[in-house]
Amino acid sequence: MARLTKKQKEAHSKIDRNKLYSLDEASALVKEITNVKFDASVDIAVRLGVDPRKANQMVRGVVTLPHGTGKEVKVLALVTPDKEAEAKEAGADYVGLDEYLDKIKGGWTDVDVIITMPSVMGKLGPLGRILGPRGLMPNPKTGTVTMDVAKAVTDVKGGKIDFKVDKTGIVHAAIGKSSFSAEKIAGNAKELIDTLNKLKPAAAKGVYMKSIYLSSTMSPSVPLDPKAV
């Protein structure tokens, strides 16, 4: 096991492992124990009492974080010419269609989100092997396949994220930056947790939210009290 640095030991010493923290306490503590020299990402991990192998217990969705993600999101709008101006005005970083499809075929994926229209999805099908593994394939369920391109771009730029429970039953999401105030971190976390509660599958039995942890880049995790949130 790798030895902890002095700063890492100090961070660990500030967390009471016999305590489950409130959301406000955890948000403040994550800021306190973050000691990297860059604006670290703040992440949440929620372990759900579901079996994601069963279709009726799959949990996925979208949430718009009230204080944004703190990250500059690069958006590609794959749209027909009549929608290009709309996408550009909404703030899309790249706008077009065939030229970008060709770039993607060549391996270019330097974007965070791709937004497109229903009529264009047929052209994206063959690119699934490139976009799928990178989480870039547009999906109507996450609002990235729509005729209202401007709203989709605005939402993504404003802090809309999509999430999906992994095969171990955990939802991971980046909910802000360490430069955020503790109140903003808590507000974003609460929005995601509330959304997960609303998405509880009817087939899920027993305890739904088993554990919740907050952490930042390279920091130890802070355990939350699921009952308190």
Tell me what the structure shows.
The chain is α/β, with parallel strands linked by helices and 229 residues long. 31% of the residues lie in helices and 21% in strands. It has helices spanning 6-13, 23-33, 81-90, 98-105, 121-124, 128-131, 149-157, 182-198; strands spanning 41-48, 60-64, 75-78, 94-96, 113-116, 160-164, 170-177, 209-216, 222-224. The chain has a four-stranded antiparallel β-sheet. It has a three-stranded parallel β-sheet with strand order 4-3-5, with helices on both faces. The chain has a two-stranded antiparallel sheet with strand order 2-6. A hairpin with a 5-residue loop joins strand 8 and strand 9. Helix 2 (23-33) packs across helix 8 and helix 3 runs parallel beside helix 7 (149-157). The radius of gyration is 20 Å and the shape is globular. The mean pLDDT is 93.
How is this structure best summarized?
This protein has 229 residues and is of the alpha/beta class.
> In angstroms, what separates the terminal alpha carbons?
34 Å
Query: What is the residue-mean pLDDT, rounded to a whole number?
Result: 93
* Rg on CA atoms, Å: 20 Å
* Overall spatial form: globular
| Helical coverage, percent range | 25-40%
| Range of strand content | 15-25%
Secondary-structure content class: alpha/beta
Provide the spatial order of strands within the biggest beta sheet: 7-1-8-9
Total of helices: 8
Q: What is the number of strand segments?
A: 9
> Which residues form runs of ≥5 with pLDDT under 50?
none
Order of helices and strands: HHEEEHEHEHHHEEHEE
Query: So what's the oligomer here?
Result: single chain
Largest sheet report: 4 strands, antiparallel
